[in-house]
Design goal:
Strand 9 (about 85-90) and strand 10 (about 95) form a beta hairpin. Helix 9 packs across helix 10 (about 430-440) and helix 13 runs parallel beside helix 14. With about 725 residues, the protein is an alpha+beta fold. It is about 20% helix and about 20% strand.
Length: about 725
């Protein structure tokens, strides 16, 4: 059926907003921003394999938005666009109506991409270049959007209101977390429904988690070069549709079912008291650089949506390492991004966002501007006032590392925390001042900007890099399974002096590795700030030395749940440490202690000691570079601790002994602190019960160990 064959009253002018496809109950309004287009065609498919789709020319255009209301178009309708206009790649114009394009506002994916040369705007080949126009029709291979009914019964769903200082984040992969879980029904493994199943919820609650942070759930592409190698884009940092949940994670067979299943997952998490944070990749799209495919934004309005080289718009500014960067200097891409954030917060009920390579979003021109349009727009939006905002505070461009520089209201992945803590427990010296900062909330990074300790998202490991198990087990990366000659990923891990490379039966080596894992875990949970767990670390998940599992959609990267005695022991220890932190608000301070930890005088509520019991002096912080030991006293009465109502409360006193030296050392308890202490944690002996009395003057700490002593006060801890 041609465009002219439709009844005269089939198409009405419709409205330019909201953009995308919006069902009214009787028909659907379609709106697409394409400011440089000369004509826009809406292509309606009756089925994914429809070879003769209907075509509707959108007749109305308002301020660059083409729109029409079509009567009788209901949920389930598959569609795409053809956009006519100038093709002059040398000038950055890449319109090509031979290429069927995905609606940027698509809320469900009705058909996923099938890789073929036809989806490229230029004739792929060794002698061709992107300035040549390819006339092949991409419709048989291009992804299709689907009109959906957005209604969902949220019922009496609660919205957990977890304060930042009480937050514990668990980074997880939707598929990988449940594919091997023996208690999750087989048909639910690898799905949104499986992730929200009772066994997983119970596991997270036992671990003290308050928020799950999902790796990308926006619809993404599996890179062509990976498919050709027999691999897949497992992590999903290759987004194409910023409104549509990834359909492969749904047990439902229909695209709209993926949307419902995601909402049901969020609803179940909320009923369990857990928040849902999603990792969003707004810095670039899957269309890549000038040689990438033409699938959506590139063919709709390339110069508006992407940042091109000022002196040669054929090429893209690439602050992401992925070929392109979204152009948030222009109001339309900024509105597009904000519409997506609001949609997931209000329609999908997510509680927060972790922004991948967030520094790229703040590049107003070329430099990173923490007070630029993106941050201002996000900050003033009342619909997002209570949403958790987390930045990965760097990108790969010049001056791209901005840990500590994001605005008030933001939390940041604290890369300096990760690096300093790893260096300490590897045995490097000269780190005591840095470690004091990290333990006390990284005041050196955040206090001067009127931010609190919870501005720091503390982590030891994340999806990108070694797992905790592998961190202490491998000195070199082993990425051979990625089929790139082990060239990808960070170059090495530096020696942890943990003996053999990889698995071993040597009991001494195994014992040392386990103790180092416990040291790192204790440091994470007893530092001020927000701890983030890399999913599976509590289960001693290994990737056999692969530190870049982005393309490993298999058992190498999936979480293994069947634990042997060693792994079960670490999981029990991890839960015990998390419970101790949750019980005592002194580890969840709402404000900094006041003075810098490397100042000559100690701060109220916090004191720092050498192993001989003497308080750290200025010389100790700055001149004793060889020292790898530190003691920290937390005064539960003097510290400014507040409850959820802002009332001052008291807690027990704590002494933390950190011995990162390769030999044992005796910590002398300062005379005025001697009394009735209890040993809560000693990473050299994780099986000892809590509350073991300690009335001595000194404590013998084994090599590479972390000790926690507690002195109860008369008032109950809260």
């Amino acid at each position: 059926m041609t465009a002219s064959a439709f009844p005269d009253d089939f198409q009405e002018a419709g409205k330019p907003f909201p953009q995308g496809a919006t069902w009214s109950g009787e028909g659907t309004n379609f709106a697409l921003f394409a400011s440089a287009a000369t004509q826009v065609e809406l292509v309606l498919f009756s089925a994914p394999d429809d070879t003769a789709p209907r075509v509707v020319r959108l007749r109305d255009c308002s301020n660059g938005i083409w729109h029409s209301y079509l009567k009788g178009i209901h949920p389930g309708q598959l569609y795409g666009y053809r956009v006519h206009g100038l093709f002059d790649a040398a000038r950055g114009a890449r319109h090509n109506p031979a290429k069927l394009l995905l609606d940027p506002y698509a809320k469900a994916i009705g058909r996923t991409l099938a890789w073929d040369d036809a989806v490229f705007g230029w004739p792929v080949g060794p002698d061709a270049d992107d300035r040549q126009k390819d006339e092949r029709d991409s419709a048989p291979f291009a992804p299709l959007a689907m009109v959906i009914d957005e209604r969902f019964d949220w019922g009496d769903e609660p919205r957990p209101d977890v304060q930042w200082y009480d937050t514990v984040i668990y980074e997880a992969h939707v598929k990988g977390m449940t594919m091997l879980h023996p208690e999750v029904p087989e048909e639910l493994r690898g799905t949104y429904a499986g992730l929200a199943s009772d066994p997983v919820l119970s596991h997270l609650k036992k671990l003290g988690v308050t928020a799950i942070e999902l790796m990308p759930v926006h619809h993404f592409l599996h890179d062509r070069h990976l498919i050709e190698k027999g691999l897949r884009n497992y992590w999903g940092y290759n987004s194409l549709a910023f409104f549509a949940p990834e359909p492969s994670y749904a047990k439902a067979n229909d695209p709209a079912g993926a949307v419902r299943e995601f909402k049901e997952m969020v609803k179940r998490f909320h009923h369990a008291g857990l928040q849902v944070i999603i990792d969003v990749v707004y810095n670039h799209t899957a269309e890549g650089n000038h040689l990438g495919p033409t699938l959506s934004l590139k063919g709709i309005d390339n110069l508006t949506y992407y940042r091109t080289m000022p002196d040669d718009p054929r090429y893209y500014l690439d602050f992401t390492g992925c070929g392109n960067t979204l152009n948030l200097v222009h109001p339309q891409p900024l509105r597009f991004l904000m519409d997506s954030v609001r949609y997931w917060a209000t329609e999908m009920h997510v509680d927060g966002f972790r922004f991948d390579l967030a520094a790229a979003l703040g590049r107003s021109r070329k430099e990173v501007d923490p007070y630029g349009p993106f941050f201002h727009t996000l900050y003033q939006d009342p619909a997002l006032a209570h949403v958790k905002l987390i930045a990965e505070p760097w990108d790969i461009g010049d001056d791209g590392y901005h840990v500590g520089n994001f605005p008030v209201g933001w939390r940041e992945w604290n890369g300096k925390y990760r690096d300093d803590v790893r260096k300490l427990w590897k045995g490097e010296s000269g780190l005591l001042s840095a470690i004091a900062h990290r333990l006390s909330g990284s005041a050196d990074l955040y206090q001067g900007q009127d931010r609190t300790p919870s501005a720091s998202i503390n982590f030891i490991t994340a999806h990108d890099g070694f797992t905790l198990e592998d961190l202490v087990s491998y000195n070199e990366k082993h990425n051979e399974a990625n089929k790139d000659d082990n060239r990808d990923g960070s170059n090495h891990n530096d020696s942890w002096n943990c003996g053999a490379e990889g698995p071993t039966e040597d009991s001494e080596i195994v014992a040392l590795r386990e103790r180092q894992k416990r040291n790192l875990w204790c440091t994470l949970f007893f530092s001020q700030g927000v701890p983030m767990i890399c999913g599976g670390d509590e289960l001693s998940r290994t990737q056999r030395g692969n530190n870049n599992s982005y393309c490993q959609d298999n058992e190498l990267a999936w979480t293994a749940w069947r634990a042997d005695k060693r792994r079960q022991a670490f999981y029990n220890f991890a839960c015990r440490v998390a419970a101790l932190r949750a019980e005592h608000p002194i580890f969840r301070r709402r404000n900094f202690t006041g003075r810098d930890p490397d100042a000559a005088e100690n701060s109220p509520g916090v004191r720092w000691f050498r192993s001989d019991g003497n308080e750290m002096s200025s010389n100790d912080w700055t001149e004793q570079g060889w020292m790898r030991t530190l003691a920290m006293y937390l005064d539960g009465q003097a510290a400014e601790i507040r409850d959820g109502y802002g009332r001052r409360v008291e807690d027990d006193d704590f002494l933390l002994f950190l011995n990162a030296h390769h030999e044992g050392i005796t910590f002398e308890v300062p005379e005025y602190l001697r009394g009735k202490w209890q040993v809560e944690i000693d990473t050299d002996d994780p099986t000892q019960p809590s509350d073991q009395p300690f009335n001595g003057d000194n404590y013998d700490a084994s090599a590479r160990s972390f000790i926690v002593l507690r002195r109860p006060r008369h008032s109950a801890s809260s």
